[in-house]
Structures are given as structure tokens and as C-alpha cells.
Fold these 3 entries.
Entry 1:
Amino acid sequence: MDITGGLLQGFAVALTPANLFWCFVGVFLGTVVGVMPGLGPPATIAMLLPLTFQMNPTSAIIMLAGIYYGAKYGGSTTSILLNVPGESASVVTCLDGFAMARRGRAGAALGIAAIASFIAGTVGVVGLMLIAPPLARFALSFSSPEYFALMVLGLAMVVLLAGRSLVKAVLAMLVGLWIAGMGIDLFTSTSRFTFGHSELLDGIDFVVVAIGVFAIGEVLGNMETREGTQMLPVPKGLRNLLPSLEELRACRFAFLNGSVIGFLIGVLPGTGSTIASFMSYGLEKAVSRHPEKFGTGVPEGVAAPEGANNSETGGALVPMLTLGIPGSATTAILLAALILWGFKPGPLMIQENPALFWGLVASMYIGNVLLLVLNIPLIPLFAQILKSPVYVLYSLIFGISIVGVYSVSGSLFDVWMLAGFGLLGYAMRKLDYPAAPLILGLVLGDSMERALRQSLMMSQGDLAILVSRPISAVILGLAAIVLLVPLAKKVGEVRP
Amino acid sequence: MIHWSLIAVLAFAVAWTEPAAAQGFKPSKPVDFVVHTGPGGGNDVLARFIASAIEKEKLVPVRLQVSNKTGGGGLTALAYLVEKRGDPHTIGTFTSIWITTSLMREEAKVTIKDLTPLVRLALEPAVIVVKNDAPYRTLKDFVDAAKQTPGQLKQSGGSIGSRDWVVRQLLTKHTGAQWAFISFPGGGERIAALLGGHVQMMVIEPQEAGEHIRAGTMRVLAQIADKRLPAFASVPTLKEAGFDVRTLPVVRGVVTPPGVPPDVLAYWEDVFARLARTATWKKYLEENQFEDAFQRSAEFAKFIDRYAEEMRGILGEAGVKVVR
């Protein structure tokens, strides 16, 4: 079937009143779930799964997919307003988003996040529609050595995330890598750094560390310095609640960068939206004319990661729909749902169920528009939160953080760890250690170690496997450039 | 305390009434259905299906509420169930991970022995596949190739103690061939590694394999099942292919906390026995190509003991440290 015909058929399916309704239900639930830290799309979809047995499968997948991409819109809200990452992919958004809020541009940041999400979300669907099968085949040529190279490129970003001191950034990153190594080792089943606690066998959840270091650490730091009293200027008037033309113009490249990087990373089964948002932020900073301003509240710093984590959704659906390969927790449960509804996910599914595939694609175009319309009017409402007095705001941040962490695992042990990481975040602020490299190390450490060991098992211990494969060699070359260019610049500055 | 003595009296009364039919107990509030995986995991999907099937067939007067107790390599859910000692309103899905963690983890303060097995529901068969353009037509071809180039061929799979790991341990021991076992945390990554040509072989669920075989991207060499699956009628079992090894199946079942009164146990046993006879359940088994393998509490307990002993032997031979 050609694309025009398919798309027409898809819109015919997606525009029926029932499917339109379920699409709205999905994106609405997604927004709510995204705004609340902790509870994520996989848990929500699992809870709703039994309900869908009585539904038409096409309507059901339209709704569940709506939750999936809708959550990515909401995720930025608490990151920007409260420095509490709403979901793991929104950690990077905290860096410039919260800084914008502190400058009184909370509304603008939320607006940019929504627009970036809309553009990238739509680009993701276009990619899914146009190039899914060939791209899925290309993604298969990626294996452990390529993933390792990709993680190395990610870690090289530390030079971009570093503040004044590269040494401190690298130290923070090493702590992140160490935390990532905790728990059961996949290959030998040895327990590492569990100190006899069964709670640590699966390692430490990323959300606990991110919320602790960012949100709790931030609040503790502000409470001490008492700068909190004039911390958050209240935006006045509609003009100040929305992004200005100038800000939007600054984001032109970021919209594109986020869309493309997010989609490509999403297609690879071994990565995820958190990595995509870090990569996109890093690239944005690397090509920026004013990289030194990143972290102080530049709009591109919000647009790039928010775009990346939205188009990642379209990318992640590529291997799932074309090959039956799940690339993330959410696509895994969508796949299980398809089987329960009587579909057979695999290489032939799209061909044999065109109405399902094209209906889903068309509904995602509609869903992204719905989300934009839904989210823009919410911005002034959410921005009002910042009008509350500091003692209310801080209590709110503590409350949301604790509830968010507890809702992930239902374990008090995690809440105590949250407190511990809050103190770590506070100490890091006091000693001027940047928090982002720690999170970067934590996100990449696990997959990087795994990919390296898998590669070496494949080559029987020969390190040459990392550079003898063309894709892996190219990515490692990029990593070297990322590391060397700033150094070269420094050398150039010293000797003009 | 009143609660406890009441249960004791009730248990006593039921033990005296012959036969110990499921008359005494009926759940009076929503039942906590504990699962060790997060949303979307194999047992989670199963539990949610069971909950909705039981509701649909009106087998229980209250709702079954799935609760995910993730973490600790399955130990969080195990410990939670043990804490619910004697609670008639808590059940959980069984996982063989509890057997391996009980054997391997010093951190485990409670073990599978602390739970009461309720029913075994199904066994999941599997098939051994290679990529469609691989030179191997039979499992023997693959094993012979592995003998000629020891350690060069690769299999993608899960972690130590998983079914695909066990299959590889037993086959290499049985034949003397050697090939690498590369662990991937997610099923998707294992399939991607095979389809991309980065590994040569894997053990996969029949449902997933079926679609790839139909599309011509994978070829099946043998099936890990006692008798041939209907969907793979032309494919030999391991034994038929000339490899007489007894592998460990993937088991789906249900457990209760320890110390549950006999009438409660009988009630739940009866609920699941009735569920297993429904058309809804049979259709589910068929769609997923699971083997109907219903066993009641006492038999299931014996099955778990045997499983644990075999696993202890296999782990020991592989040089994995067994702590208890």
C-alpha cells in the first residue's frame, strides 16, 4: 500500500468519533501521568490493560499509545517549575528549565517545552510512517560494540556539562558510574555493593538519585542561603507567560536537533529517552554560539531535550511495530497488549493489519495537536504555583518528591535513600560540584559496562572489535572530537 | 490477636469436618495479587489476565488487585508475601527466580521454602532458533560447528539460572561442544542480536518465534518440550533431535503466604481449578502456546523441591556459588 492511501485509510479510522474520544482520553491521561513524578506510562498502561479487553483493539492501542507520548509532554512541568524531574527523560530539562523559571520565564519555558514536544512528536510520527522498515533493518546492524561507542560518546558530553571545573565534573560522573554498578551483575550473578541488603540487589533506581540530587538538594541549599524569599519572580500578564519570538527563534536548531536525535536513538532497542535527551542537549551546547550560557536558563536548553524525548516515542515504536522487538518498558507492555488482543506482533504485522498501523499513525498526528491545545492553556495555571509563598512551595517540593519516589517501588527504603541523595545533592552544591555529570554517569554506566563486556565476549577478549566495525569506529571518532575540541580551544586561548 | 485465634479456631473446625471442602472461607475484601515484575513483565501480564478472567467468570465475589512488588531480584515480592503470614486476602504469582535467588543470594532473608505453593497453572515451552540464512539445518549441525570452532559461536540469552542458560549448560555438557553465552537484559535485545547476525543462536518463546518463522527471518532447529507443539508439528524435540537432556521448564503458577488456614488454601485451590477449566483460560493458553499443566498444592510443592534440587546441581556444575 502506498503512503497516501495508507494515511487516508488511517485518518478514516482515527477520525471516527469513538477513536477520537479514546485518543483524547489517552493523551489526557498521559499528560496527568507525566506531570506527576514517579508513576510512569508503563504502570498506567498496565493498570488500564484489563479494561481494554472489552474494547476494539484499534481504539485500545490508540488510547494506550496516547498515554505513552502524552506523558512526555507533561514530564517537563515539574522539572521546570520545581526542579523535580517528572520522569527520567526530563532530568536534563531541569538544567535550563528551572533556571528559566528562576528568572521569571517559567511560562516561556513551559511553552517552549510544549512547542518542542509538538514539533518533535510530529517529526517522530513522520519518521515512523515514512522510513520505519528500512530504518529497523539498519538498527539491527547496531550491536554491543556500537552501543558501547554510543555510550562513550554520551560520557564524553561530560566536558560539555562541566561547570567551572572539569575535574569536579569528572569526579561527579565517576560517582554516577559507581552507583550504576551496584546490584546483581548480569553476567556472573555476583552481588555488588549491596552491603547485605536485598533492597540493593537491583541497584538504585535512577528516579531516587535524580529527584534527591536535584529537587531535595536544591531546596536544602536555598533554605540555608535564604535567597529563597526572592527566588521566584511571579510572571505577570499573558505576554510573560508565553515564549517571546526571540526565544522561539533561538530554538530553531534545537527543535530540529531534538527531533532527529530523539527519533534515531529511539529506534535503537538498547537505549532510551533519557540518553536521547542528554545527547541532544550536548549537541545543542556543542554547536551553540554561547555555550557558556547553558545552565543559566537558555530556551534551547529546554527545547532540545524536550524535543528529543518526544520524538523518541515515534522511534521506539519502529522496532516494535516492524519487527516485534520491544525497545523499552512501555513498548514491551504495548507488545504484550497486542498479543492479548489477538494480534501477532512480528515482521508481518503491519502488512497484515494495515488499518491498525495506519490508524495508529493518524491518531498520533491528531494526538499531538490535541496535546498542544491541551497544554498551552494549562501553562498560566501551572505558573500560578510559583505565586505561592516559599514555605508552601518547599513543602510542596518535598511532598511531591517523596510521593513520587514511593510510588515507583512502594518501598520506604527508597524514601530513606532519597533523603541520603538529597544530602549528597546539598553537599555537591555547597562544594560547587555539578549534578548533571553524576546523573549522566548513572544513566550510561550500566548499559556501557554491559555493552563492553558483551563486545569482549563476542570477540573472545579482543579489544579491536570496538574499532574494526565501521559504525562503532565512526562514533568513537565523534567522541574523540567532542573531547578534544574544547581542549584545543583552551590551548588556543593560552597561546593566541 | 482476636483475629489470629479466630483463624486458629476456624482452621481447627475445618480440619475436623470431613471432607475439608471449601465452605468455611470466602474473601470479604479486595484480594492483593502480588507480582515480582514491574508492569509489562511476563508474570504481570499473566496476573492481570487472571484477575480479569476471574472477574469475567465470577469465580470470586471480590476484586483481585494486582500489586507490583519489584526489586531485589524478585526478593522484595517474596519477602512481602512472607510478611503477610496467614493472610487469606493475599496471593501471588510464582516465579522460578525465587528458586535461583534462594540458592544463590546471601542477601535473601526469606526463601521459596517460606511460601505455600498453591497451584501450578502452565508450562512455557520454547524453541531453539537461528537466523534464516544460517548454514545450520539441524541442532546437530550447530553443535558440530561449535565443536569445530570452540567458543566462536554465540548464543544470546538472559542471566545465570534462566531457562536459556540452563539449556546451554546441559547441551554443552552433554555434547562437549563449547559456545559463548552472551547475556542481554531484555528479550528485544536478544532477538535484535540474532537478526543482526551478531549471535548465531537463541532460545525463544514459540509465540514470538512463530511470526519470525512465518516471515522467513528465523529458522527453528528444535523445540524444548516433552511432546511436539501443534504449531511446530514438523520440528523435533530435543530428545528426538538426538539430545537426551532433561531441561527445566518455565513455570507459571500461584502461591499464598505461609501459615494460611487449610480452608483458605482449599478455597483458592478450588478457584484456580475452576479457572483452569474455563474456555477463557484454554483460549489464553492456546494463543500463547503454553502447555496446560495444572497441579494442586501438594503436587506443586513436590515439583518445586525437585526443580530446586536439579537447579542446585546445574548451578554447582557451572561453578556458580550456591549459598544454601
Entry 2:
Amino acid sequence: MNQLSISLSLLLQGTPARLLSLGSVDLLVIIIYFGIVLGIGFYLKRFTKTGKDFFMAGREMTAWIAGLSFVAANLGSLELMGWAAASYQYGILAAHWYWIGAIPAMLFLGIVMMPFYYICKTHSVPGYLQLRYGESSRALSAVSFGLMTVLMSGINMYSMALVMKVVLGWDIHFSIWVSSLTVAVYVTLGGLLSAIFNEVLQFFLIWLGALLIPIIGLIESGGWDGMVARIQRNFPGADYTHLWRTMGSFTDNPMGIHWTGIVFGLGFVISFGYWTTDFLVVQRVLSAKDLRSAKLAPVIGAAFKMCVPFIVILPGLLGLAVLPFHLVGEGQAVATGGHSYNEVLPLMLARYCGPGLLGLGITALMAGFMSGMAGNVSAFATVWTYDIYRPLSKNASDEHYVKVGRWCTLLGVLVSIGTAYLVMQFLSIMDYVQALFSFFIAPLLGTVLLGMLWKRATPAGGFWGLLTGTASSIAMWAWVKLDHSALRYIALSTDAKDMAENMYRALWSWIVCVAVTVVVSLASRPKADSELEGLVYGLTKVPSEGHLPLYKRSIFWAGVVFAVFVVLNLIFW
Amino acid sequence: MTVPSKHFLSIWFFIGVLLLVYGFLVLGAAIYGLSHPPEMQVVLSEQMQHVVSRAGLWWGGLLIIMGGIYTYFNWPKREKS
């Protein structure tokens, strides 16, 4: 869910030389990393014989593995670099994307939605739509998800290659081909099982590679209070360390966002849309070995997600405190030869990491990219095989679908590489594809939520709600592109910045989707109750956890995580 | 954190081995750096230079301990015939 549109081409133009130099130990750390992820792929191939093994990781992952994989699939390298840059630029406001923009939705997925996804034994989110609404809704969401996922993967690949060029001076083509082929090999061989194994491994590497920066940074700054004092000295009058105080008006904070946009747009529609209906992340939880593990996995994921600002947001804030020069926007960096916001994480790596540790830090960035890409291609392969290919070829054997899944994985990687080269030629594509991706998330949330919670929702209502919600999102985006003053209607203020516009557009398109679904459903014939068992609230028997001791219940841990989330918001209010 | 499967090696075992290897590499590089200090890429105070130069020792040690624990407790067991 990277909301940042990073003008990496400008970053490339503006950087006269590479930022970091790797020694032989650092290179050895990176080579060993590539060796072990490939080794895991070759090792797990023998355990992925059936479709259930390849597409669902055998459905035998523990809550811990599914939960860590759930978070790791979201932690792309751009996520690390981009949000560290955002925190330098906007301060702690960037943490909203990790807390209110993630935690409530992840807990909601675990406690409320997971039972329906899990009990109906679906293999994908489009698969759930097929069971609940029928083929037309499945086809619409599967095609849009498959295409957008693989295009986004290509954009991330190109961005990662540019980062490696800027940070290490590596050739762009080398970075694209080596990293993507590595992902292609281990996901093609071991399917989701291999992707999940590597994601858990990569999760550890990301933390161990990035954790030293905030630790040493806090030592240099003299703790949190020392850091705040230094920031105030370096940037007099600016408030970089409060989450909510500056949210009363669009003009009081550098993001140009009002609290209603953060709470309802980000905290509800965008966050719930992404974390509860984007198959890229939901697929990880569907691999859990039983319902209790499936409910606990997002709760475990939420607990770790809540800690990610420590390695992403804090380095950006520390950059504000300790760097002897001010970072600037890319345009200014190009003009002046200075450093841009996007370079804050590599600059902090260079500041604190010696030989070996630097290799570990770079490996963390690569692990982030590869876990994100593996998530994209494994989800792509599942959706294209089960939701697009299988309806056209219904009587094939399970072995045949596994073979198709492996080919789809390779195809997904090749299309991603093609997209990366296309973006290299036509940079504006990057903005359009990111916008396209956002068009589908909010309406899909409306369709899935009504499907799960309202038994009166009909197949016609679901399909037309999804279609009109998506169309309205595209129309609002085009309206603002053609007439900027339309922002006053879409985002409630002409002062709203891009992020605010995205949030309000998501909110409106969700409302359109829900309204159309309700109206069309009330005017069309509902499905019989017997057809909705296991799919809808009130008609699904969800096993009770009442017989378990309190500390083993998912609802208890969800409560603990939510309480910590509230306390964090109060501390940094 | 229990092992997820009855038939393949635990992911925690792979993580343990990798952390152990990385721990020795980072610790080795840090010990070598004490006698052959690397060229600093940025200017830091003397106190911070001391912290940064010793970070590899602590971090390498931590990785070895974590990797050792994970490897030991998840070492593949031989199945009884």
C-alpha cells in the first residue's frame, strides 16, 4: 500500500555518484542471501505436488508463520525507503499509515472476516465473490486484480533497480534481471509454500538489517527527547513529532490532510480495502492450518506492523535531527546537486553501518523488494489459474492446474519485467498504474463487506455495485485531472494534496458501491438461505473459542493489540 | 512458535542457520575493523565513532546467539524407523 509517488528518475538525475560502497564482506552477505532463498525454493519443490500445496501452501501454516508472512508481503523495499523519506518530509504523520491505516483493519480481518473466507474454503478473494455473487463479479475482480498486481510488481521492480543504481551504482538491467529471476525460480519451484518460507526469512532480515539505525540514532540524539530538541533546533517552528495536533485544518500540516480524511478515508476505506480484500495479503492468511490460526495470524501481523515505524519512521525523524544538511524535494536536489528526501535511509545506513552491517542493511532492502514481488506473483498465479483459466477449462486434472500455476508464475515475472522496461521508457505510466490500482480497492471492500454481513445482497447488486463504484472512482480521478477546481467537491477543499484526494475519492467510490449494491439488491431476487451457508453472517456457524483459556483466544489478543494501538496514538498525540 | 509441518524442515531452522552465518561474518568483520579501521563515510563525533565501531561486535554477537538458539531448538530430528 505504498501511497508515495516517488519521482525516482529525478532522484537518479540528481545524484552525482553512488551513496554507498560495499566491501567484500557486504557482498558475501548479499550472495549468501541469494543462495539461501534459491536453496529454499529447490528444497521445497518436492513438497509441492498438488494444487493445495502450490496455491495454498498445503493449508498447514501456523498462526505465527501465516502472520509474519502476511506482514512481510506488504513490506516492499519502496515501503522502507518511501516511508522513511515521507517521515523526513512530513514527520511522524507518516506513522498514520502503519497505525490507524493498518491496525484496525487487520484486527477486523482476523476477528470478523476471516471465519467467512476460511469456512467457505475459497482459494482467493475473487473465489469468494464467485461463491457469494456469481461468475460475473468474480471475473471482474479477478481480471482487474491479476492485471494490476503484475503491473504494480513491474513498477516496484523498476523502482528497486533505480534505488540500487543510486545507492550502490549497480546497473539497472542487472538489478532487474537478477532479483526478478531469483523470485521467479523460487516461487515457480515451491509456489506459495516457498514464497511464505522466504517471506518469513526476509521479515527477520529486514528487521535485523534496519534495526541498528534507530538504536544508534537514538544514542547519538540523546534519546527521544534529545531527538525532538534537535529537530526543533534544526527546523524552528515546525511540528514533526505529533500525530493528531495539526490535523484540524488542511493548511496546518505539510500533508494537506484533515483528520476526517485520515480517519474515514485512510483508516476505514483504504486501509480496510487493502488489508481485508487485497488477495496479495489475504492469501497468506488463507494458508493457515485451522480457523483459530487463521484468526490469530492477522492479529500477530498487526502486532508486528505496529512496530514497523521503529525501523521506518524513526530513521526519517532521526535524519531530521542528526544530518548536518537539509534534504530537499527531488526537483530541488536535481537543481542544486543536494540530497533528496528519498535518500534518507541510505544516508543513515552510511552514517552508522560499518562492513558487514552495511551488507545486512542492503540485504534488508533487497529482502523487502523480493518478499513484495513474491507476494505479487504468487497471488497473480493463483488468481489467473483458479479464477480466470479454470472456468474456461473446467475438467482438467489437479496436476494440470499446478503446471499452469508454474507457467503463470513465470508469465507474471516476465510481464513485470516488461512493465519495468515500459516504465523506463514512459515514466508517466507509473502514476497511471498506481492510480488504476487504487480504483478497485475501495469498491471491492463495499462488495465483500455487504456480501459477508448482509444476506439480502444479490448477485446483480454485487456486480453492479462493484462496477459502478470502480467507474465512479475513475470518473472522479479524471474530473480532477481535467479541472483541478473539482477538488473542492471531491476532497472538500482546494487546499487538499494528492494523498487527501486519494482518500476522499476512495470514500466516495465506496459509498457509491454500497448505495448501488443496496438499491439493486432490493430490486432483484435474493439467493436462497441454503445457498449462503458458510458465506454470510447469520447463516454461518463460526466455531466458538469459549472453551479455550483466555490467553489462547484471538479476540483477547486482538483486544491487547488494539489497546496498545490506542495508547501509542495518545502518547504521540 | 511450533513447527508447522510434519514432513519438511522448519522455517525457523533456516532462519537460525542464516543468522548464525551472518553473525560470524558481522562479528569477524567488526573484529578485523578494530585493528584495521575502515574509512568512515561520514564525519561523526569521537564518542559516536566509538559506538559505531563497536556496533558490529554487539550485533554480530546478538545474531550468533539468536541464530544458535533457533538452530539448536529446530535442528531436524531423525525419524524413528
Entry 3:
Amino acid sequence: MFRPLETSNSSAITFTFDNQPVTAIEGMTVAAALLASGYKSLRETPVSGQARGPFCMMGACFDCLVLIDDETVQACMVQVRSGLQVSRVPRMNKAGDRL
Amino acid sequence: MTTIVVGGGIVGLSLAYGLLVQGRKVIVLDGTDEDFRASRGNFGLIWVQGKGFNCPPYANWSRQAATLWPDYASDLQKQTGIDLALSQKGGVSYYTNEADLAGQISKLESLRSAVGGDYPFEMLDHAALKRLVPEIGPKVIGGIYSPMDGHVNPLFLLRALSLAVRQMGGDVRTGNSVIDVKAADHDFTAVLANGDHVTGDALVLSAGLGALELGGKLGFTTPIRPQQGQVLITEKLPHFMNYASATLRQVNEGGVQIGASEAEIGFDDAEDMATIAGLARHAVDVFPHLARVKLVRSWAALRIMSPDGLPIYQHSPSYQGASFVTCHSGITLSTVHARLLPDWLAKEKTAVDLTPFSERRFDV
């Protein structure tokens, strides 16, 4: 279980992950907020279908990919903001169409 | 009876592996991570079509190398347990211009005659190519398929060779550049940056661009230069690409690798946005659905180029036992380097004839 190391003076905000509300502290990354809310797996790999979640938390491993504004982005490189809509990256078929 | 291999990239390790199979003692001297390391930045093709237009022996050498790959990969997997992700289903070259395609076909036909007819390739118009590769876009007017081509995971190959050489008793010294070489017939001493001296009765200079600093001391002219290539890789995608091309291949982990530029800018391995954009545009021209795909990384590496782009295999004219081996196709040629070059290094009478690839071809 992940928890903040120190209490923050920043205010709590709410965003959504797959349409479910998630509470986070302003300034957190999306990856940190999702881990703190109990989400470990954020997607399945396109090749083997195995579960993947945030790992390096510093922009290197590309395991924390999520969909924001219809773009695949690294959840550890985006800060949460109130009302942000985050969803799982859809599976693709061979032609790149979303399933 | 020890061979010093100067250079621990794919070329040096392939030679070391081959020498160990023959029972030689081998010491591989690898440089540092600050060196230019083509073996860590290359594209991973096992490529035959179009190589050697002006030199049929090079076409044959590449073809022979590709033919040996299945058995070679299987040997390395038995030795190390590493699956190299070898795929030799053939290669496709994509064209967006009729004249370019016609020109290439005519050159390939000449080469086919020059090597005696056994040189399979096929010209495909847009419709025929779309049956083979349904994902191509409307800008692709046609292409060339050849069953001779393929690809492999070059980083797995590097790891497998490195492991195999160690497992078979090779002495691999890493993180230490060779700063000097003392040479006499069958008596060589390599001086390392940390002051160590390494001795052997034979020496192979296979240090990539590092050979420029040491070649003269061994009697070689080392007419090589860096040529920069930039490469991109996308996020991982479901497997859709069955055939590699010289500019696009889907690696076994799912990413699409996009390459490669050619720039004569000296020892500069920095990427630039204009080149990256150009490579990405080409990829989207061929496969429009890649426009929706994220790039995750780009990098540049330096090819080791000779004046005619072909490998150089040269025995030292000054010192018995010293040889120079360099090429920009170290992946394709890894098989022949391991299997056929040990006899050539030892000047066995039955060794393969590599005189078309000597340094002397550049003498004016």
C-alpha cells in the first residue's frame, strides 16, 4: 500500500480513472495518485496481454501508460488536476484500431 | 597461443566466439561507455537485397552470412539459453516513387546476373504488395520482396555473444581502452588505460571507429569514417509486421523501429528534430496507422564506413599475426565472422578468399 510520506498543505482534488472518481493531492502525478488509491495495474501489454503498472516513476520505463485527452501518455509524467479524465489505454488490433 | 581481440562489440565478440570454438585462447579488450558503440545503437537487420551492386563478392558474402543464421542462432541459444528473436521471413522495400522502384529493380537484375542467377526477389505493385502487407498506405506505389532478408534482436545477440565467450573461457576485459599497441611478428602487447599489459601471439583489430587510433601502429591505413544514423522506436504494438524493411521493422517486444538517417557530420551522435520528423513522416507514409502511435525513444549511433561502404579484411603488411576487421553490417556478417574468419586470421590454405575486401582496393 502506498501512502504520502508527509501530510500536505495542498488541497485535495478529484479526477476520474475509467469514469471512477479518484481523490488526490494537488501536485501529485497521475501515477502516484492512482497507486495511492490502490490501482496497481493500469493496462495490459499489447503483445502478451500481461498486466502493467507504474514502475520507475521517472519517465523511463513506459509501463504506466494511460489515455488522457485521447493520447497515450506516461502517468508518472503528468500532474493531476481537478476534473482530469484518465482512462486505460484501449487494446489495439493489428491495424492500430482500438478494440 | 593467445589471440588479442581489440574491440568487444558484435564484430570483436563474433570473432572471439569463433576463435574459441576452434580452441584458441582469446582475450577481448572492450572500451568504455564513453566510446562510440555501434553494437548498442544499430538497427538489427540481417539484410542481403541490394548489397554489393558494384561488388558481387560482397553480395555473395552477405547471402552466405544470412544463410548461416538459423544454425548460428540455434548454436548460440544452446550455449547461452538466449533466444535471439531471429526472423527470416524475408524483407520488403517500400517505394513511393515509380522511377526509384524501376531503377532499383534494374540494378537488382544486373546483380542477379553477376552472381549467377540465384538471387531471389520480386517486384510488387501496390495491389500485390497490399496482399502481402495489408497495412500499407496509398502513397506506397509498390515494393520489392526478397526472401533472403530478415532481422534479429541485436541487443540479445550482443548479450549472447558476450556470455558465450565468457562461458567458453574467453577473457573479456571491459571498461578499459587500449591506449597503445607494441607489435612484432607473432608478438603483440596491448597497453590498457589502467596500465595493464596484455600479450598474445596474434591480434585482431576490430575496434570500430577506435581502430583509427591504433591502426597505424599495426601497419594498417584504416580508411574508415563515422556516418551518423538516427533511429526511432514507438510504443509497443500488437504484432502486425511480418517482414522487416531497411527502414521499418517491428521488434520482438512490439515496438516499431524506424530508421535510419545517413549524415556525414563526423563524431556527432546527437539527434535533431528535423531528422526525427523526416523519419517519422516516412514511417507514416508507409503505414498510416502509425500516425496515432507514440514515439517513445530516439537515438543516434555512428556507422563505421569505408570509402565504398564494404567491409575491410586486411592482414597486416608489417607484422605477421595482426589483422584488421571492420564493417558496418556487423549483425548480418556475425555468422561468417564467427564461422569463417578464424581460418582466414590464421592464414589457413583452405580459408575463404577475402582479397576483394583488402585495404589495397583503395590504393590510388
